[in-house]
Amino acid sequence: MAASTVIMEEKKEDSIDRQKVCPFLLRVFVSSNGSHHKPSDYIKGNTPQNELQIYTWKDATLHEITQLVKEVNPEARRKGTKFSFASVYPDYRQPIYRIREIGTTVTGNKGPEDLKTLGGLRLNIGDYLDIAITPPDSWNSSRKGYSNNFNNRSRPY
Questions:
Q1: How far is residue 70 CA from its own chain's centroid?
Q2: Which helix (H) or strand (E) holds 108?
Q3: Count of domains in the chain?
Q4: Which tens digits make up the pLDDT trace of 54-105?
Q5: Label partner for 143 (CA 20 to 30 A): which of 8, 23, 118, 135?
Q6: Quick check: helix, strand or coil at residue 94?
Q7: Boundaries of domain holding 36
């Protein structure tokens, strides 16, 4: 009797069928100085200048978004470049926007936050994504004793 093998793919909990579900427009604002934009930059319909428009799905990961930003931003391709992500969303009690940091990725280093999805981070359609890009020279030199090895963290992912 011949042996048969069964290969099963593990599906992410929040994954969707990208062939059947229409993507949504994600407005991404990139800052290359290592700091996020201020909430006041988003007031009264105004937005910061450096905008990328990405069509994506709720199951897109921070790593996927990082790859898309690197395609249009050559200086962000250097190994060790840090991408700090923040969600920008309206405060429905006041006519202002709030900013909430949601994760960080580093070019050339795999980390646990690479796999975080937009849906898992509670990003809603219509929210903005603010990405602060920090070159490797800037953030590595200011963190003495920092190891880029993400496996050494003591907290569970």
A1: 12
A2: none
A3: 1
A4: 999 999 999 999 999 999 999 899 999 999 999 999 998 998 999 999 999 9
A5: 118
A6: coil
A7: 24-143
Q: Per the domain annotation, does 16 fall within a domain?
A: no
Q: Convert the pLDDT of each residue in 14-24 to its tens digit.
A: 678 888 999 99
- Kindly state the tokens that stand for 79: 């190994």
Nearest to 28 by CA among 59, 2, 64, 80: 64
Q: What are phi and psi of 68, to 5 degrees?
A: -65, -40
Q: Could you give the strand order of the β-sheet that contains 128-134, starting from the edge strand earlier in sequence? A: 51-56, 24-31, 128-134, 82-91, 96-106
The answer to whether 45 and 146 are in contact (CB under 8 A) is: no
CATH, residue 108: 3.10.20.550
**Tokens 């991408």 appear where?**
83
Query: Whose CA is closest to 83, among 97, 98, 69, 99?
Result: 69
Which residues, in sequence order, are bridge partners of residue 131? 30, 85
Q: How far apart are CA 109 and CA 117, in angstroms?
A: 18
Nearest CA among 23, 22, 45, 56 for reference residue 129: 56
